[in-house]
Amino acid sequence: MSNIITKIEVQKRNKDRVNIYINEEFKFACSSELIYYHNLKKGKCIDENDLNDIIKEDNYIKGKNYALKYIEKSLKTESQVKEKLYSKGYDEDTIRNVVNFLKEYNFINDDKYCDMYIREKLNTCGRNKIKYALLNKGIKESLLIEKINNIDEEKEKKIAYKLAEKKYKIMISREKNKFKVYKKIWTYIISKGYNSNIAEWIINEIKCNNLLEIENDNEYLDDKDRLSNNNLECNDKNLNKFYKNSQCKNNNSKENIDELARKRYDIIIKSEKDKNKIYRRLSGYLLRRGFNFEEVKRSINGILYNIE
């Protein structure tokens, strides 16, 4: 049976789209520009392959317009655009063509996105937190490692110190025990994405610069806290013990990271089957806990692909 166009109807709610009827039955809707491009008109006989090509072209136009609108307000990564289009039901060919168009005209550029994101976040976050965020946005591992390794360590330390100093001024009015303040600063710095070496350096700098000298603080302390503040040797021993315990919790030993990774993996796969998404979620989870990026990669590859 021949495919005869029996009706072309402009949609009421969208004048830029039309409904196409084949043999008196609705067949598909498409952009009005395709009507002119393919010279479609009532009474024309159209081949099935040509119909499929028109539908593919229309999907591409819709996908492209949707993607352009999606990236209009803020920059997006290639992975974010792909996932958004997948969520809207677009097929792989359409998504690939749309992404190629966006990359060709520089609407999406993961390299520039990384530079912009790191430049923006470096004033408030350490490299571990930045790693996690970019990984979660779908940045490729090779590019991510290159960009993270280019972060100036001295600049990162100075920013971390300023954040700690600002936090100290808030904490000092609430807590008079120096050892407790040290611990809170340590936890705060780690939570901001800085590694344990930077956290320890900051606390030592604070001690050396006498930032934690609390004027007349002993009158606010009980006997136990007063002894802790006045006995520097005891205080240093407590700090060293705290450093050791904290680093043990976040060390990069093979047994520790593999155990954590396996437990988290078992939780993630209950709601997620896509290996790429599992990789990002699992790596983000481990990076937030201070594990080394190479160890995270090794552990996850061992779980997902049996690669040691």
TrEMBL record:
Residues 64-102 form the RecX first three-helical domain. Pfam families: RecX_HTH1 (PF21982), RecX_HTH3 (PF21981). Residues 255-298 form the RecX third three-helical domain. It is found in: Cytoplasm. One of its GO terms (cellular component) is cytoplasm. One of its GO terms (biological process) is regulation of DNA repair. InterPro entries: RecX_HTH_1st (IPR053926), RecX_HTH_3rd (IPR053925), Regulatory_RecX (IPR003783), WH-like_DNA-bd_sf (IPR036388). Belongs to the RecX family. Modulates RecA activity. Keywords: Cytoplasm. It comes from Clostridium tepidum. This is Regulatory protein RecX.
